[in-house]
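Quick start: read one record
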Amino acid sequence: MSDSGQSMVSFLGAKADRRLLGEDMSNLPDAEHYRETAISTREHDRLVAIGSLMTGTTLVGGALIALAGAGKLLFDGGGVVGVAALIVGIVLVATHWGWVHVAEYVGVGIDDRQERGADERRQDWLASIEPYPRFSVSTRVLDDASTRIERFLHRPVLTEQHTFTFVREPDGEETLDRHASAESIATGVETMRRQARLASDRQRGLWEAASTAYDAALINSHDEQRQLAAERAAATALSEHINRSLLEPPLVE
């Protein structure tokens, strides 16, 4: 079995490292970067605005009710009605700030639910990343106005915690001088991108063959050596997949 096959088996059972959500994300192809969904604060802000409005309304309304009750007691001998109005007004004025706190509490709860949802989406994205090599292509213009087409290998690597992340390494390049036509540049880029896509697809096929056999062996094995049996099954499936691909005719560009 090839060295790449042996290293691929070592990734079985490993999970994507959270660093791929941060500084290591640039080591993945651009098309596979995680796109964070913006968390909306409109509902929170709307609740706070409503709470502020209720606070002002309660303060002004409570003061007016208290004044009306006091006036009724002083000038009309309002009795029970005046006392009740005075008490209600004082309670409203004393508790008017509570509306802001209630609105903020509810808003924070909404923000927490949104953040939990965002974290679940991040975890789902991490779980979808599989540890097989990828290839990508980019272009850049050099100082002499020539165009360089570069191919990169995005290689999975294991961490000390037996999670995996990726490193990005140059894997080939082609430089077209400044007199090259736009058509020849486009053709060169498309050719290299097609080769990169085919190479990535082949690596994904190898990984899927190994991981499928590994999962099946884990399910069906019940003794203390189930991990070794699963890895052996994965390595065998990977070897067979490689051997079948060697018998196929080469891809024609």
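Strands lie at 15-16, 134-141, 147-158, 163-176.
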